[in-house]
Design a protein that fits this description.
binds 6-O-phosphoryl inosine monophosphate; four-stranded mixed sheet; binds magnesium ion; binds guanosine-5'-diphosphate; ten-stranded mixed sheet; alpha/beta; 423 residues
Length: 423
């Protein structure tokens, strides 16, 4: 399969976990390259549901190496919990099939506290973060005051660096009206987590280059989505990493000329969790999907905001990620909709946009221009081939792929592995 980058083409939760699990079969290595445990990637094996936050979704397949790359921010307490949780249910996680970059940055409790305190301070302008400390952790990385995994696993270094960081952060927390942290408590917890994680820690850049020399096929697992990217998303309503395809290079140390293709994952409609503009948001489709028990966040349990498919957004995603192939998920979510709308442009005053305006305030005022498709009004969850899909569903998939300007590669009609149609 060569080296493939998989990205979310919308606002996150596109079904990346499921598609990663499917594509892992053809890969040797799966690498997470951005984000932290703000991500929630759902994979079903038969009736069993797994939600992965930091460990790559490839872990559920045997004999695959899973890597957390340098671009990820790692909450070690969360990671240990996740590893132990997987081991308890019989999923093998050992240094043979799971490794962690020594240069990934570490998320500390003060990052989480600051995340929460800043959100409170913002009031109605809040971002609606996952409160996992992601923004402050990437902030420390950029400010060059972060601790990396190799600091975490060295007790003397951890003690020295952490004590100075806690001092500074406690002063900030106090000024924001939040409770200061106990150095001793945090140090004890992180020391234990560092000890647990040490056997998994390695130089993942060298490891990946050795693997490529040996012709390994690598799958790069994106987290979040294109419009949550710190540069290309609806700033400031974004996460703090480069979630787009370029992030796979910087977040892993694999250079651009070694990347062979980009797969964009998108839902057959649109969802977003958290604040910020969502031009095609629609109460009717939200109610329909929530009524079916769908579209509740995998990490925070919040109800996702839902809307019609937005091809202005996905076309933009093709542009910034270089998407070659599309995996369109949740087609079955539209099985009962009589008239399906697709946004093809935005109107803002007298201006018509066929691309995403950069300014989130302008985007929030944009009115979608829709075309309509006739619904197929037939269950699709049991369809195994493209031909078995209702003709109207085939037409819809072809149309949204064409509007997105990329090749239709996978259609997904349910959360299971076997509900995946290769087109
Ligand atoms: P991710 O963050 O991109 O991995 O996506 P999430 O796991 O947060 O959310 C996607 C949700 O859609 C999960 O509950 C998946 O099990 C589910 N899912 C993925 N593909 C399909 C599909 O084709 N049909 C249905 N019904 N559910 C799907
Ligand atoms: P996966 O990988 C959906 C959203 C949050 C919030 C904004 C910033 O499962 O697709 P953060 O905690 O990162 O500072 O929050 O980004 N967000 C996600 N939304 N899926 C995700 O990950 C997300 N990770 C962050 O809701 O709006
Ligand atoms: Mg998710």
């Amino acid at each position: 399969m060569a080296n493939t980058i998989l990205v979310g083409a919308q606002w996150g939760d596109e079904g990346k976990g499921k598609i990663i699990d499917v594509l892992t079969e053809q890969s040797d290595i799966v690498v997470r390259y951005a984000g932290g445990n703000n991500a929630g990637h759902t994979v079903f094996l038969g009736p069993k549901k797994y939600v992965l936050h930091l460990v790559p979704s490839g872990i559920l397949r045997k004999n695959k190496l899973c890597v957390i790359g340098n671009g990820v921010v790692v909450d070690p307490i969360g990671l240990v919990e996740e590893i132990v949780g997987l081991q308890k249910i019989g999923i093998k996680v050992t240094p043979k099939n799971f490794v962690l970059s020594e240069t990934a940055h570490v998320v500390f409790p003060y990052h989480r506290e600051l995340d929460g305190a800043r959100e409170l301070l913002k009031g109605k302008n809040k971002i609606g973060t996952t409160k996992r400390g992601i923004g402050p952790a990437y902030g420390d990385k950029a400010a060059r005051v972060g601790l990396r995994v190799n600091d975490l696993v060295d007790p003397a270094r951890l003690e020295e660096k952490l004590s100075s960081r806690i001092k500074e952060n406690n002063a900030i927390l106090k000024s924001l009206g939040a409770k200061p942290l106990s150095f001793k408590k945090v140090f004890t917890e992180y020391l234990a987590a560092g000890k647990f994680l040490k056997p998994f820690v390695t130089n993942t850049v060298v490891l990946l280059h050795h693997a490529m020399r040996d012709s390994a096929n690598i799958l790069f697992e994106g987290a979040q989505g294109t419009f949550l990217d710190i540069d290309h998303g609806t700033y400031p309503f974004v996460t703090s990493s480069n979630t787009t395809a370029g992030g796979a290079c910087t977040g892993s140390g694999v250079p651009p000329h070694r990347m062979d293709r980009v797969v964009g994952v998108m839902k057959a409609y649109t969802t977003r969790v958290g604040e910020g503009p969502l031009p095609t948001e629609n109460a009717e489709i939200s109610d329909l999907l929530h009524g079916m028990g769908r579209e509740f966040g995998a990490t925070t349990g919040r109800a996702r905001r839902c809307g019609w498919f937005d091809s202005v957004a996905t076309r933009h995603a093709t542009m910034v990620n270089g998407i070659d192939d599309l995996a369109i998920t949740n087609l079955d979510g539209l099985d009962t909709v009589e008239n399906i709308k697709v946004c093809v442009a935005y109107r803002h005053g007298k201006t018509q946009y066929d691309y995403m305006p950069n300014d989130a305030e302008i985007l929030a005022q944009c009115v979608p221009i829709y075309v309509e498709f006739e619904g197929w009004l037939t269950p699709t969850e049991k369809c195994k081939t493209f031909k078995q899909l209702p003709k109207k569903a085939q037409a819809y998939l072809k149309a949204i792929a064409e509007l997105t300007n990329a090749n239709l590669y996978i259609a997904s009609v349910g959360p299971g592995r076997d509900q995946t149609i290769f087109v």
